[in-house]
Amino acid sequence: MAVTDLFAGEIATELLKQLITISRKSASCRSSAEQLIVYIQEILPIIQEIKITGNELPQHRQRQLDIFSETLSGGLELANKVLNSPRWNVYRNLRLAKKMEKLEKNVSRFMKGPVQAHVLADVHHVRVDMAERFDRLEWRLGAMKIGVDGDGGWLGAAVKRVEEEEKWCEDNLVNLGGTGLELGKMKVKEMLMVNKDGKESNVVGIHGIGGIGKTTLAREICKDNEIKSYFSNKVFFLTVSQSPNVEQLRSKIWTMVSGNTIMGHGDMFPQIKLGYNVDSSARTLLVLDDVWTHSVLEQLLIKIPGCKILVVSRLKFPPSVVDCSYELDLLTESESISLFCHFAFGQTSIPVCADKELVKQVVDECKRLPLALKVIGASLKGQSEMFWTSAKNRLSRGQPLCESHEVQLLERMKLSIDYLSERERECFMDLGAFPEDKRIPLDILINMWVELHDIDEEEAFAVLVQLSDKNLLTLVKDARAGDKYSSYYEISVYQHDVLRDLAIHLSNVGGINQRRRLLMPRREAGLPKDWERNMDEPFNARIISIHTGEMSEMDWLRMDCPKTEVLVLNFSSSEYFLPPFLDNMPKLRALILINYSSSNAILHNTSVFSSLTNLRSLWFEKISLPLLPDTTTPLKNLQKVSLVLCDISKTVNHSAHLFPRLSELTMDHCINLTDVPSSICQMQTLKSLSVTNCDSLQELPSDLGKLSSLQILRLSACPNLKKLPEGVASLGRLKYLDVSQCVNMGCLPEGIGGCSSLEKIDMRECPQMRSLPVSVGFLRCLRRVICDEEVSWLWKDMEKGRPGLCQVPQECFTLDWLAE
């Protein structure tokens, strides 16, 4: 990877630039310079192949390439001397010309010798190996989605690694050096639990720069046994963010603290009144994380007897608002080294074989910022010494000391992005399209990358795992999944707000009309003024992300977006007028609408769907789906539709004919859905049908068996669904059946054995399941059954011939997922 870095980074660029200049200005060195340019340009494609494969070369090959890269590094120094040598110094110029000739011969010897052939052989070997692996990827992706291999392949392994890293941080971050988080934890606990001078602190703060570990400290305090005992386990954590819906947050706070839960999906939250009776003897701790402004905080500081509030922010709020506050310090030198070494070497000290001074210099350049140490350490893991030296040099040039810590952090984090492949870097920057502090459903991200970067789903998953391994995003498993990997549907993506800031910072380079991404970093009342000032020219962005409140027809700009392929509309309102410029997006392939208000939004201007002829993926969240006009043109390219928290009761039966090539349909937490419309059974191309968390659902259409292409059927958490139609037995291609948390389902269909391709059944938390049909014995492909201990005995006869068939996940009683 050292040579990859050389050619992909600034050294090669500078060297080629210098050689071109020499060929024009220096008569004595022109011939050598021109030949060197040819040699370097010849080997660039080979280096690029090594970079694309991402594989390490054998040690002896890497050593040969390292020697070659050192030769070229010396060539860069020589080129600078040639350009700086005055023309009148004939003797010096002759000596430099001789050295240029020697450099040319050394490079020529490398190019014409056996090394290039060795490298080509290695690259060919890697290419063949990758081809063999990708032949198996289609099956592996299917296994990853449904989890038949138990640990979920690379995705399951990545999730497990994240969980292990989090546990390591919990166990070690507060013990790295006796200070830092340990001291902070002790001080904040004291502020929350001890009265000083007879005066109680009702509002306590934690403040410090971004990426220093404030949220980590707050979560450690929430899990502390003394804190939980003192507050009788009434400890609540709420993320505020830069773009908060204050009224919704106030309602959540009241629900948490008062214990008055809101039943159903009602559109209205109860008004918070200080006169409500709350047990003043019950202590409660409320943590408000990521608070950005004084005005928002004041609106959230609701005085309720017995309730203490812990405010986490980059700002130090005045004593009139926060009674006392703890400033989280940077890590000490020893803590920094331990944290960095864990992510770079897998141990908490510098290995004997490593260059101790070089490691310390890199750690020092991370400025004792935990997030920088974590990300940069992961990016250097397993790299050569020359790679480390290059990283140290780039870090040292990163930012003058007069800049703020936030700017320094962004500049240093940029190093880890520079070392990504081009595709990984582009995918990382796409993450800036989503609001801060929100979990991103895996489906949205994978679909977006597939459409934007012309890659297959398996390649998108590989990028996801690479970014996770480098700590540039976090894979989060649904708490309800227990300890076993079940399927990728239970995974979401979270990104630290500093990393999101970095993605936006990198995306905002260049003129606004020429950027590949047009992003709004936070919610605003309308579109940015600089968009309006530049609307006379087309916007060439391939992805546009908008974050506003309610939008009427007059609020939109008439933008021309001929190259846009992904449009993300984040908003918070009960009514929303779709942007008229959708008519000017001929290449749009993915449309994502997410409503963050407390009530479902009614859409207007739905006639624009007729112009979206290239649309392939559609995600609606918290929308009251409209009846599309009769004149709507069928969306012949649409393949994926996801409807989350939507009211769809009046629309699906009338819209099925508009999606003739639909392959995936997801309906999650959908309001008033009592039965799945029979018109869905006309979608012969449907491969995946997910109807989950729909508590009103009572039955499925009897002709479900007509879905001859169906491979995945997910019906989890539908408590009023008591049985499956017998038509399920006709689904000969079905691979995955999920009826988990269907608490009133009493049995599987009698003819379930007809599902000859079925590989996995998830039937966790189905306590009414008393028996199995005899036909389960015909499920020859069945490899995994996830169920509770009480149900596992039903499978004992089949398990005799298939050891390990049943998996019993650890029971999970946490309700933390309700806050998402």
UniProtKB/TrEMBL annotation:
It comes from the Eukaryota. The keyword Repeat applies. Residues 1-149 form the RPW8 domain. Gene3D superfamilies: Helical domain of apoptotic protease-activating factors (1.10.8.430), P-loop containing nucleotide triphosphate hydrolases (3.40.50.300), Ribonuclease Inhibitor (3.80.10.10), Winged helix-like DNA-binding domain superfamily/Winged helix DNA-binding domain (1.10.10.10). The keyword Repeat applies. Pfam families: LRR_14 (PF23598), NB-ARC (PF00931), RPW8 (PF05659). Keywords: Leucine-rich repeat, Plant defense, Repeat. InterPro entries: Apaf_helical, LRR_dom_sf, LRR_R13L4/SHOC2-like, NB-ARC, P-loop_NTPase, Powdery_mildew-R_dom, WH-like_DNA-bd_sf. Belongs to the disease resistance NB-LRR family. This is RPW8 domain-containing protein. It comes from Rehmannia glutinosa.
